[in-house]
Design a protein that fits this description.
heterodimer, A: 168 residues, alpha/beta, Rossmann fold, 6 strands, 46% helix, B: 206 residues, 6-stranded parallel beta sheet, 9 helices, 15% strand
Chain lengths: 168, 206
């Protein structure tokens, strides 16, 4: 990820009012995550399992934070139980899911990405989580802001699928 | 010692803590002993402790207590190193360890064998851990946890519950909103935000 894209991320998250970041490190975020970790306007929490991260984010929202998860698409496979549980028991908990959509159309990176890539929209559709897809960083800042507006209006999760991130 | 005894002991200390309970008998018993707006009942299995961790990190000045169970924490062990790394002093995790999946009729969990949740927490970096088998030891651990520096986890070995109390007569969404409104009131926060955009009927004179 280019430094310019890292800065777009930071601007988008700040404009959206995000103040609680949950992540599990993944390849494309190698430059992004250290920048987020040292940014004082975010509480930064690294997890071992994104499902835990979604539940931690739910608790943070109940404590007054605006949480976002920055994860790879396999997080949706691991986190489907967490998202379904939070939705089924409590009617959903607001959080923005910023998902590296490896294994989507245009990704020439490797066959191993495509299982998670193909599952990601299926899981979001199944959980009735609104989402959109972008495949370059030009619209990223605005998409993050609009995503958080969706989260706050619906009081449930919303997701941004970010494709072709190996070119970002 | 039964779970009810531990919960009665906790209830004597509770003032404005935010408390997240496991599902099953613990949720029913805590509702029966001390229902209050600061209680969040019955997240799914594996969720009470990470949910309480999120609360504790968001509100570092506020005491947060997770009342979890052995089966539930065993499902979500991956949260323990996160707690160890973050180590919020305002978080107490009580594991009601009955060594069974009691709600299903009592098949044994792995804590009936060689698995030790307090030991796992300690190895994951949680600084204050206790494995207790009777009420005086539980009381002592709870006293120490309330005074503790860093996160505390108490694994309380209990017998299966003999008391039978009813389900809490509030569903999950109602419980969520009651809990969040309580956090808003007591923390002077605006969490449940109103829509930002005014509708035409809000701005045009009638």
């Amino acid at each position: 990820m280019k430094e310019e894209t890292v800065q777009i991320f930071l601007r988008g998250l700040k404009r959206a009012g995000i103040d609680f970041i949950v992540t599990l490190p993944f390849t494309q975020a190698a430059r992004l995550l250290p920048a987020l970790a040292k940014e004082p306007s975010f509480k930064y929490v690294q997890v071992n399992n994104e499902g835990d991260g979604m539940v931690i984010a739910a608790g943070a929202w109940m404590g007054g934070k605006r949480p976002a998860l920055i994860v790879e698409n396999t997080a949706l496979c691991l986190g489907a139980y967490a998202l379904a549980g939070l939705d089924g028991m409590y009617g959903g908990m607001p959080m923005l899911l910023l998902v590296d959509h490896r294994g989507s159309y245009g990704d020439g990176g490797g066959y191993w990405y495509f299982a998670g890539g193909q599952m990601a929209p299926v899981i979001l559709d199944g959980l009735k989580i609104p989402y959109t897809t972008i495949d370059n960083p030009a619209g990223l800042e605005e998409a993050i802001v609009r995503g958080q507006a969706t989260v706050e209006a619906s009081s449930r999760p919303a997701a941004l699928l970010m494709g072709c991130t190996d070119h970002w | 010692m039964e779970s009810y005894d531990c919960l009665e002991s906790l209830a004597k200390r509770v003032t404005d803590e935010l408390i997240v309970t496991n599902l099953g008998s613990v949720a029913r018993e805590w509702f029966h002993i001390k229902d209050r707006d600061g209680n969040l009942y019955r997240p799914y299995m594996g969720h009470p402790t990470p949910l309480a961790l999120g609360l504790a990190l968001a509100l570092p000045h506020r005491r947060v207590v997770a009342i979890d169970g052995d089966g539930s924490l065993l499902l979500g062990l991956s949260v323990l190193p996160v707690i160890g790394a973050q180590n919020p002093s305002n978080l107490i995790v009580i594991v009601i360890d009955n060594e069974t999946y009691e709600a299903t009729g009592g098949p044994a969990s792995f804590t009936a064998g060689r698995a030790d949740l307090a030991g796992m927490a300690r190895a994951a970096g949680v600084p204050n851990t206790w494995l207790v088998r009777d009420l005086p030891a539980f009381d002592g651990a709870l006293d120490a946890a309330y005074r503790g520096n860093g996160t505390s986890l108490i694994a309380a070995k209990v017998k299966p519950s003999t008391r039978r109390v009813g389900y809490a007569p509030l569903d999950g969404p109602e419980n969520k909103y009651r809990f969040v409104r309580y956090v808003e009131r007591t923390e002077k926060l605006n969490i449940l935000k109103k829509p930002k955009k005014a509708l035409p009927q809000d701005v045009k004179p009638r």
